[in-house]
Amino acid sequence: MTLLLERPEEEIEKLTRTSPAAAVRAARRLEVVAERVGYRAARGTRADLTTAQAAAALGLDEKAAIQ
Length: 67
Known about the structure:
Blueprint: H1 2-18, H2 20-48, H3 51-58, H4 62-66
Helix pairs in contact: 1-2
């Protein structure tokens, strides 16, 4: 997954040199997609894990996970 996510970053960096506006559009699209899938994943996690388990999976303490 990490390698898959590095590719768009590299491509947007290249695009920044040739067409900054297009790079901003591409970056914004990635933000929208990340928000959408992140929301769905968070909802699934909420149903499957306790707050403490979710916090541990994210590398957070329980207090930070609640915020």
